[in-house]
Structure of Homeobox domain-containing protein:
Amino acid sequence: MGFDDLYNTSLVLGLGFSSSSTVDTTKSNNKVKINSNSELPSLTLSLSGEIYDSTVKKVEFSDNNKGSGGPYLSCGDNLYRQDSGASSFVSNVSSVKREREMGSEEVVLSSRNLINSTTTTTTDEDDDGLINGRKKLRLTKVQSALLEESFKIHSTLNPKQKQELARELKLRPRQVEVWFQNRRARTKLKQTEVDCEFLKKCCESLTDENRRLQKELQELKALKLAQPLYMQLPAATLTMCPSCERIGGGGGGAENAAKSNFTVAPKPHFYNPFTNPSAAC
DNA sequence: CTGAAGCTATAGCTTACCTCA
DNA sequence: ACTGAGGTAAGCTATAGCTTC
């Protein structure tokens, strides 16, 4: 590519992810979603032409059912959750799992009620494990701290660890499990927001860089027009990057001399504005 | 060995409740 | 007292991985 060719090019700023993943920063329920599969962001600054190119089924058994947490059966003043049985559409997996956990919960049931009644909102569970409505359990500071400590060590729990932690905290294993699920989700959400901010900064930085390079290009074009013809001949040995004004020195001899005055990345490449001072160098 | 079926864990999304300004 | 926003426990579905037959 010759110098003249370069005059007729424009710079293109590209922001995206490597491979085929896409960025989807739609906000839903105040949540930022990025479908990135944890891939690195690919920020490119290149010449033009070089950019490579459930339906929720719910059955309301009772008009008193305020929430959507699932079907409820009313019985007197109580609303009983219908987790399994007749309402067979309810997740088979969930019900089986819950039944299994109910069994294992028996170990901690008595002591749990003790701590709940003293430190948290009670769950109003009767002996059959039926939930009266949907009460909000509030973990105590001690419980939260212990869970946090545990999360720092491992973000996922094996069944044994879960049981152990549940016993220690006097909670149901299911509650420990849910806490870890939500905790992982929060961590991910936070990371996503951080990533989003990072990408925004990258984008801003590259936009600035692009603007600056466009300006330089314009200046060089103007300079060329102002120069007499003999000065427009390509330099034989010296090359200079217009961006950082560093002399490239044409050490390659004839081979380099045959090329353009300064090199431009032939393919889009990852550009990190926080580590690279100039995309052109 | 292969494929279907079942089980389990997890992610993602959503809802409901609680707290607080 | 009321209200809206934010935090969070817990619900459900989808999916992947594993085991069993």
